[in-house]
Design brief:
Blueprint lengths: L3 H17 L8 H5 L3 E5 L8 H14 L7 E5 L7 H18 L6 E5 L24 E5 L1 H9 L7 H12 L1 H12 L4
Parallel strand pairs: 1-2
Antiparallel strand pairs: 2-4, 3-4
Length: 186
Amino acid sequence: MHDDAHIIATVRRWVQQVVVGLDLCPFARQPWEGDTIGFRVSHAQGTTGLYKDTVDALDAFLNADPAQESTTLFICPGALPDFDDFNDYLCDLEDNLEATGLAPLVQIVGFHPDYRFQDATPDDAANYTNRSPWPMIHFIRPEDMEAALAHTPDPNAIPEANIVRLREIGYADMAERLARIKGNVD
């Protein structure tokens, strides 16, 4: 297992080169350039301890000064390596946020090394919109998302534009990019 500094540096490269670099999320540039993205690492192996780490990371995010930490990436390198298990965990987390009344305070988005859209094949380059070096959960303040969407001419066009862009780049190129970011290729 890598140390936190290595994990965070890797995720920062991914944000810079893929998310911001390929403009997959036009809302990411501002927190990236403003250095207001929080990075938290869970040391949980499997789901043991992951729930507590998730609650702690979410609590830290919700209590952070938004000017200092506008959004957070909660990285889980030792947990949920199976995408279906990860997806189930995200669904349970969304249900828990709803049940505890926290849903209006935070939105979550999942990223995973094996992310796969429901009707996509595993080798569809479009999956790389949500493929990341390790499983992670993105915490977003709904008011920030609403403000960003208000300044975006056609936010519904973003996913389709990303699919087109990534398919033009191609699966092999995207797989190699992610491997290089993670340090698995020279």
